[in-house]
Amino acid sequence: MSLGGAAALGASAGLRTFTPLCALALARYGPASRASRAAAALAFGELVADKLPRTPSRLQPPALAGRVASGAAAGGAVAGPAGACVGGAAALAASCAGAGARAALVRASGLPDPAIAVVEDALAITLAWRAAAAGAGAV
After folding, report:
1. Total domains, the chain
2. What is the band of 139 on the pLDDT scale with cuts at 50, 70, 90?
3. Is residue 14 within 8 Å of residue 128, measured between CB atoms?
4. Is residue 139 part of a domain?
5. Which domain holds residue 113?
6. Model pLDDT, residue 32
7. What average pLDDT score do residues 27-39 get?
8. In whole angstroms, how large is the CA radius of gyration of the chain?
């Protein structure tokens, strides 16, 4: 897979930590595998937790480190060591850009934060799934 796929997976991790790992597990092992079910449970839990008002910012050090690690792992899985670097960097960039864009859209639209978060969910899932499906043979 190309470094572009690693970047897409990393960007997805910047928006939702477990989404690219779930997409990779599903693409590689199918929905019935233990790995896919565990990854899907983590990804779903994150989608729900993200909408809760007490969920801390993705930019706090533990959350940000997790996103960068997820992006690096996903990028590395599809494009080796260079992919890990690209995936981690893309996760960092997308974490910052996603947090800023989400806050700006909430202010500009007047919509509640969870409504904008659902759009962000869709973007993260689309990025991850398209990249994982394209590189399923490489994982």
Report:
1. 1
2. very low
3. no
4. no
5. 3-134
6. 96
7. 96
8. 14
- For residue 129, being part of any structural domain is answered with yes
- In DSSP notation, 15-84 reads H-TTHHHHHHHHHHH-TTSHHHHHHHHHHHHHHHHTTSTTPPPTTSHHHHHHHHHHHHHHHHHHHHHHHH
Mean pLDDT of 51-80: 96
In angstroms, rounded to a whole number, what is the distance separating the alpha carbons of residues 121 and 22?
Answer: 13
What is the rounded CA–CA span in Å between residue 69 and residue 83? Answer: 12
From 37, 31, 2, 3, select the one nearest 18 (Cα to Cα).
37
Q: Maximum CA pair distance of the chain?
A: 43
**Could you give the 3-state DSSP secondary structure of residue 112?**
coil
Q: How far apart are the C-alpha atoms of 57 and 45, rounded to whole Å?
A: 16
